[in-house]
Specification:
The structure holds two protein chains of two kinds. Chain A is α+β, with helices and mostly antiparallel strands. Chain A folds into two domains: about 5-55 and about 285-420, no CATH class; about 100-245, no CATH class. Helices cover about 55% and strands about 20% of the residues of chain A. Chain A has 14 helices and 14 strands. Chain A has helices spanning about 5-15, 20-55, 75-80, 85-95, 135, 150-155, 165-170, 220-225, 250-265, 280-325, 325-335, 340-370, 390-415, 420; strands at about 60-65, 100-115, 120-130, 140-145, 160, 180-185, 190-200, 205, 210, 215-220, 240-245, 275, 375, 380. Chain A has a six-stranded mixed barrel. In chain A, strands 8-9 form a two-stranded antiparallel ribbon. In chain A, helix 2 crosses helix 12 and helix 10 runs antiparallel to helix 12. By secondary structure, chain B is α/β, with parallel strands linked by helices. Chain B has one domain: Rossmann fold, CATH 3.40.50.300. In chain B, about 30% of the residues lie in helices and about 25% in strands. Chain B has seven helices and ten strands. In chain B, helix 5 (about 140-155) packs parallel to helix 6. Classes of the chains: A alpha+beta, B alpha/beta. The interface of A and B includes residues 328 and 338 of A.
Chain lengths: ~425, ~250
């Protein structure tokens, strides 16, 4: 029998039992949908990490205060609040004679504060930094202007708002030229009025946090207005110095020479700072998301099991179907159907079920992934990206399941003795 | 046409061998109309299965149309069934979900022929079923179902038609209609027919009657005056079925 006739015969047999065929298909549909959706979410979270690493800017070194514990980088990042770095360290690093390969240096202090403007208020991260920040971090002002050298030298009360902060406080109206009130200290006792000079471009989340939920002010303004940040020597501390290196090849050299300089300046035997490369920061972030990725992978595996269960359902129904249609098989054999004809007929039926189910599952899975992408589900923002691999894999697995679970019933059917089959009641 | 030599068939019921045929020697000439009679358990169905290449004999040789069938394997037998043999069963054995025209196309599916649909329509029209093409078995009367089954075996242009109690499930009048169709296929188209029955009236249409008992041929008689159908030769085959009331 030709393959077209075989397929037509299979369709007519399946159509004769519509409810049964669709219920059998349902197992495969659910399995494929789940596998595709969960794989898409896993892939999406992976992509989110990659993008956030890229979002940091490029060729960056981060200098943070802390004990030298190369083996325990994490402690330096999360626990290292010894405040050993000062803004003159940053100035020393930006000396072009000593460090010709350094393109830009941006020291920063960040802390939580409340902002009030008009009737609105919000809590956000306030970053005190210098004009270089834009360039070093690859993160530019979208409207108005960024902190200027002039703002720095006059310790001006000017602020640049993150994209979302601007929206929260001012809605659609232009915040440039308006004023925001910053409240800091216990109970927000100390307040300052800042004039908004710019709004940053939207950027989204990167490895160092949500870059739209920020406010930038000049570093000296912050140091001058918030005395608790001064250290006993009377110098002004910074929490982090970002250094942009011109060429990737100079990375190791920069790291070594900056370390030497800082050791000299701080006059210590044991390093009281840590230099992290961009990749190291990214790795820390990646380790965090790895757990959730493992979770998604496990869920996709469970969905895979449901596919296998669907396959068992198909085998069950096919076995019943062969028994029910024993007489039909006898008639077909009497008319000249070979074993191969009968085997193919039942195998194609099983394949039609799994392939149709797989196809519907792919459509549903892709639709669900697209619906889920960018939404917040269970307080987690979900990124979903359907890959061709996931589609091919899920569909391929359902075809394999059709073959695997269809072959035994089909083989049984093909081996029926035509005389006994014809007399089957 | 058909030559059986020392055919035996032994079934096994557990460890006990049950002989169904014990040394059958039988020749059927081309164009013959043979009736096989005998009591239940005499081996007539087994004989028909072997003739129809559904089963291989335990020993002995079977030649069909010059081909030594008893030496063929299962796959080759399937091809022979498709090319040479047409079956008509007591219980019609039509497939429940197919319309008449697709029933008739069925044997052609297993032989790659073009214009299947045209051949099937022709066979159905020949049997007077031109207005029943799209009917499913449940929508047809018993006689119509058996005529669909005959059309199904005619469509392949078989050398040999084997009928196992073809009138057994029909009332007497319809049974005679069906027998007249067989007779005319034999006379007008020269198709060789072997028919199993336990009714003398049915066997009376054949040229020759073979009696079986306990797996052996006990008598082989020619019928010098087979029962004649009164119809004229130019009438279509199906018009013999006029006495039967058909359901819409």
């Amino acid at each position: 029998m030709s393959i077209v006739d075989t397929i037509r015969t299979a369709i007519s047999a399946l159509a004769a039992n519509k409810l049964r065929s669709s219920l059998t298909m349902l197992g495969i549909i659910i399995g494929v949908t789940a596998v595709i959706t969960l794989m898409a979410v896993g892939q999406g979270s992976q992509k989110g990490v990659t993008e956030s690493i890229r979002g940091l800017g490029s060729n960056l070194l981060f200098i943070r205060p802390g004990q030298s514990q190369a083996s325990n980088v994490e402690a330096a990042v999360y626990g290292g609040q010894a405040l050993t770095l000062v803004d003159t360290d940053a100035e020393a690093i930006s000396d072009p004679e000593k460090f010709p390969y350094v393109e830009g240096v941006a020291p920063q202090i960040d802390f939580e504060g409340a902002l009030i403007a008009g009737g609105q208020n919000t809590r956000t991260t306030i970053i005190g930094t210098t004009p270089d920040y834009q360039y070093v971090r690859d993160f530019y002002v979208g409207r108005g202007q960024f902190i200027s050298d002039d703002d720095v030298s006059r310790k001006g009360l000017v602020a640049v708002l993150g994209h979302r902060v601007a929206q929260t406080l001012f809605g659609d109206s232009d915040p440039v030229g308006k004023s925001v009130r910053l409240a800091v200290g216990p109970g927000g006792m100390i307040t300052f009025n800042f004039r908004v000079i710019g709004v940053m471009e939207p950027k989204g989340a990167t490895a160092t946090g949500d870059e739209d939920d920020l406010m930038f002010i000049p570093l000296p303004t912050m140091q001058a207005r918030i005395p608790i940040l001064r250290n006993p020597q009377g110098l002004s501390n910074v929490f982090q110095i970002s250094v942009k290196v011109r060429d990737r090849d100079d990375f190791d050299r920069a790291e070594k020479e900056i370390a030497v300089l800082l050791r000299e300046r701080h006059n210590v035997d044991k390093d009281d700072f840590v230099i992290l490369s961009q990749t190291e920061v990214a790795n820390l972030k990646a380790a965090e998301t790895e757990i959730s990725q493992t979770l998604w992978a496990a869920m996709a595996a469970i969905a895979g099991i449901s596919l296998a269960v669907g396959g068992i359902g198909i085998m069950n129904i096919m076995l019943v179907s062969v028994t029910e249609r024993t007489r039909e098989i006898g008639v077909r054999k009497a008319m000249g159907a070979t074993r191969g004809d009968i085997l193919r007929q039942f195998l194609v039926e099983a394949l039609m079920v799994t392939m149709t189910g797989g196809g519907i599952g792919v459509v549903l899975g892709v639709t669900l992934s697209m619906l889920a992408d960018g939404r917040t589900i269970l307080e987690q923002s979900v990124r979903a990206e359907v890959s061709a691999v996931a589609i091919i894999l899920a569909f391929g697995v359902s075809v394999v399941i059709g073959l695997f679970f269809g072959i035994y019933p089909a083989f049984n059917a093909s081996r029926l003795n035509p005389i006994e089959a014809l007399h089957h009641e | 046409m058909v030559k059986l030599t020392d055919i035996t068939k032994v079934y096994r019921a557990g460890d006990v061998p049950v002989p169904a045929l014990r040394g059958i020697n039988l020749e059927i000439q081309e164009g013959e109309f043979l009736a096989i009679m005998g009591p239940s358990g005499s081996g007539k169905s087994t004989l028909l299965n072997i003739l129809g290449c559904l089963d291989n004999p335990t020993s002995g040789t079977y030649e069909l149309d010059g081909l030594k069938v008893s030496a063929l394997d299962e796959e080759q037998l399937a091809v022979i069934r498709n090319r040479k043999v047409g079956f008509v069963f007591q219980s019609f054995n039509l497939l429940r979900r197919l319309p008449a025209v697709e029933q008739v196309e069925l044997p052609l599916l297993y032989r790659k022929v073009a214009n299947r649909r045209r051949l099937a329509l022709q066979a159905l029209v020949d049997l007077g079923l031109g207005d029943r093409l799209a009917h499913r078995p449940v929508q047809l009367s018993g006689g119509e179902q058996q005529r669909v089954a005959i059309a199904r075996c005619l469509v392949t242009n078989p050398a040999l038609i084997l009928a196992d109690e073809p009138t057994g499930a029909l009332d007497t009048a319809t049974g005679h209609d069906i027998m007249r169709i067989f007779q005319r296929l034999n006379v007008e188209r020269g198709i060789t027919i072997a028919l199993v029955t336990h009714e003398r009236e049915v066997a009376a249409y054949a040229h020759r009657t073979v009696h079986l008992q306990d797996g052996q041929i006990v008598s082989d008689e020619a019928n010098s005056s087979p029962k004649r159908s009164s119809t004229a030769a130019e009438r279509p085959l199906g018009s013999d079925a006029g006495s039967e009331a058909s359901t819409p």
